[in-house]
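Purpose: get a first structural picture of the assembly so the mutagenesis plan has something to point at.
Setup: two entries, given in the order below. No constraints added.
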Amino acid sequence: MTPRESYDQFVIRLRQHADLAAALRLMEWDQETFMPAGILESRARQIGALAALVHERQTDPRFLALVDDLAARAAELDPEQQVDVRETAWRLGRERRLDTALVRARSELHAQARGVWIEARRVDDFAVLAPFLQRIVDMERRVAGTIDPSRPAYDVLLEEYEPGMSAAAIAPLFEGLRAGLRPLVDRLRARLERAPLSSGALCGDFALDAQRHFNRIVAEQLGFDFTRGRLDEAVHPFSTTIGEDVRLTTRYDPHDLRYGLYATIHETGHGLYEQGLDRHAWGTPRGHACSFGIHESQSRLWENQVGRSAGCWRHLLPLARQFFPQLANTSLDAVLLAVNDARPSLIRTEADEVTYNLHIILRFELEQGLVDGRVAVGDLPSVWRERMQQDLGLVPQTDRDGVLQDVHWASGAIGYFPTYTLGNIYAAQLMSAAEAALADLDEQLASGDFGALLHWLREHIHRCGQRERAPELIRRATGSLPTPGPLLTHLDRKLAVLERA
Amino acid sequence: MTPRESYDQFVIRLRQHADLAAALRLMEWDQETFMPAGILESRARQIGALAALVHERQTDPRFLALVDDLAARAAELDPEQQVDVRETAWRLGRERRLDTALVRARSELHAQARGVWIEARRVDDFAVLAPFLQRIVDMERRVAGTIDPSRPAYDVLLEEYEPGMSAAAIAPLFEGLRAGLRPLVDRLRARLERAPLSSGALCGDFALDAQRHFNRIVAEQLGFDFTRGRLDEAVHPFSTTIGEDVRLTTRYDPHDLRYGLYATIHETGHGLYEQGLDRHAWGTPRGHACSFGIHESQSRLWENQVGRSAGCWRHLLPLARQFFPQLANTSLDAVLLAVNDARPSLIRTEADEVTYNLHIILRFELEQGLVDGRVAVGDLPSVWRERMQQDLGLVPQTDRDGVLQDVHWASGAIGYFPTYTLGNIYAAQLMSAAEAALADLDEQLASGDFGALLHWLREHIHRCGQRERAPELIRRATGSLPTPGPLLTHLDRKLAVLERA
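Result (structure tokens, whole complex):
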């Protein structure tokens, strides 16, 4: 076969895999949204069967041979084709090293530990989870060593989520961020000591049907295409893509408008990215999201940079009043205080923009320590308490409010946490670059016109797929490699508003 | 391998196929319920990919060899195991004869003709569909000849839906039914000439949310288990089973309570059958519905025999009044007239119980004629008109109200129609047998107690799976092979009520 013929064959196979993966995504989505409770076990089995099949197809020897052949003849391909071959070969290079027995043992361990985590939280006792967490750490070390024994295990794990990144590259970024956050947290504490923040403007009674309608319109106005997607409800909001069908979920609090709205805007950010991927390249790396960090940058940009801004609320507040007449006399300033409320807290998912990244940096350092042996599983609760005291001046009284709060490690996701803060860093850089590129962006947002910003993101991020890895993608979009400066500037401005209130 | 070991292997494979088929069912369900409109094409492709895969697995040479081996050693298996091997071998015996190219050509033709059917209906011109229908008839003849050249082509096609049945077995049943229906239709006409039926008791304004709530409670009271199923809405109500998760759909008319209610009860009947199958035998023929006709008997039994009865409405009317206060002064007699309204009509799906089967018998005879060449495709509209005049005294003025009204033939489903009337025949026999077996069934229904009837059906139909084919299953449950007598008795009673009104 000519390289062109081989490449065409290769794309046909990639797309077959993508079509099967779409069925898997739909089963997972359904499980979190509409599936009746009594059939959990059979659904788990169906998902297992299909996942095994997709894995089998992806690591089928004939397909691997095709990819190897293309990789060896990459020079004969055009640059676009090279991207697809390079990224597919890279990912398969990881997967093919793990034999089926190891893959199965790993996923069984994750499923089991996830159940134990639920129980450990119920009885509020980390000791229940500890032996399983130890097994997970051992397993992940083994997986990393099998994939690439020549590199630090943590980096191998991290690249599952953020290819092209390493602990050594992240550490100075996070250090700079932490150094910049310290004085901000001190200022926040001083502000809170002076007087309580009046942040209740969006609390009250908000009928669920009105919230559903309002949230749908917001997602639509931000640019989400409902002819190729949905917005439903789930206990833990998430989004997924079934082929080219992007499904968002949110969750409403009848007494707090913020809860559902920011979940919706966050997931809409993920959804806009997915809907903005190059449709002509579907099923290939060029038509696939770049990394978890870049994905999170899109959700965070819309949620925090746009959705909590004064410009955006100049548009949103009149819209919200159409659905919730009780907001008729609520001022823009009061709403901005409500959506930018900040205070040190114990729980990551409830943290504000100022303190959120300190929760992540803590986890990033602890999980590195777990993998390289500097931190013992048994010491996690005490180390956690020390670090929380140091960073946020708070000490969890229970494991549930401390080391047991997140499911990630118990699900085997080690190396995932840093992508949250990378997303925040990227988002601030992107917003800063977009503001520089687009005249009067704040005025555009205030008039409900999100199109220019979305277009800019489409061009600089969405359409790029996996042509570059995250650091290079950010550099091309913003003129600078990842750096915490714009995020710190953004947070400093937020804090100044709180200080004036 | 011992026969036992082979059998165990065989069941593992069957269940793997069932798990993959579940994903396929979910994609189809989603397409009809929640899928956004703009992604139809990619969904069709995903369904195609998964369907091809399921077919590939089912006809995998190693699996076929396993089944052949078991079939050859069937005498060494226990009777339960023999059922699974016999039925699987029988179905595979059909599928394996069709090579992949033929399967693909056939399904492409069906998809294409379905699109043409929509267009032919839009322009109301059978000539648009005719060439495609001719190709479908030719294709189905070829398929039948490939599966079994020794038998009449129509019988081979029919057995796809009703194994163990043949045109020769059905013809006398349907002839007897038609002979019995003629005087009933004459009586109905006479009744309608005397005075219009006052059948508007359940027409008015019925809020959709109240209808949703009411219908869900009805399904639940009939015995549908919502922890293993759902009730949603679809343009064309249907039900499907995803593993052990049974999903019903219905469709509400805001001005007529009957529309949604009888769609719900009908689909609940299908759903109760699926939920009553032997769960320990899931994935095998013993845990699978017997035939399309038996399936339809379950929906029809609950819809017509139970749901339109005086006993049932003694319970339903007070329940309905809780949701629809406007029914406070509506009498039971008025409701019974409304739900048993009958009049000759052109459209099968709108036909009443008395005339419905005449629509089916017409189609049964025409499709046999198409397959054996006695009826030319081009003559269908005129033959249709003649027969409608003869049977119902009505002549469609358009193809849309005549030969173009059903999608079945254009979808390649030839041999499917008789299962509707077989279902009605079986349902009347089963209800008659249940009434004989259960003391005071009418009183039980009147008190909202559907449990004894459901239990009887579970025992005599649901739990049996494919242990017997439909005629034998009916004989064991009712003491008589399929016969139109009980259905005619049932319709005679219905008519007597109308005649008294």
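The mean pLDDT of chain B is 96.
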